[in-house]
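Researcher: Next entry in the queue.
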Amino acid sequence: MNLLPEKDRQNIRRFLRWQDREAALYGRLLLASGIDKFFKDFKLTLHDILINEWGRPFFKDSGIDFNISHTDGCVVCIITDDGRVGIDIEFIKPIDTDGFQKYMDTLQWKEIATDSSCKSFYKYWTMKESVIKAEGRGLSIPLSDVKTEKQGEAILYGYKWYLTEVFIDSRYICYAATDFSIGDGIRIYSINCVKCEITLNGNIQF
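Model: Structure for this entry, 206 residues:
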């Protein structure tokens, strides 16, 4: 904790559950590790992170974008110097989907309603969340505004985002959204039960 900027330590302490504090800490450590490993020439540290008006952290004037997500037992971090990125991961567990229909279109809801495993629900949820996180205005954007009619793509207010499923473990569903085509796919760099670090073939790392 002492290696983190004071603002990060304060944010982590705000979490009530120790699991959330641990996940937030791992997220920052993954980011620091990824920057040091893949973007060392940028000479960035966690102390260079600023927060936009919607609460999204970013490195000012660096060309580096990143995003972090965590769920039960897993933390992921995506970093790139190619554009905007967002990532969302969810642990697949039973959920009462009543009340979520308003966030899905007709075809999505039809698939969700007939899937007792809940995987379809988490698939569309992580797709939409990853786009909203990449866009940068967070929960000020309704999930229903993210349209996913075409496979591998999403449209938000006329802007196209590319969607990539990131396989972490069969217990999880994870999607990444980028404003550029990833192309050659994904290669896992390293992974374990509480943190994971993945790299694509290009200039983008999870």
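Model: Residues 18-38 form the longest helix (21 residues).
Researcher: Noted, moving on.
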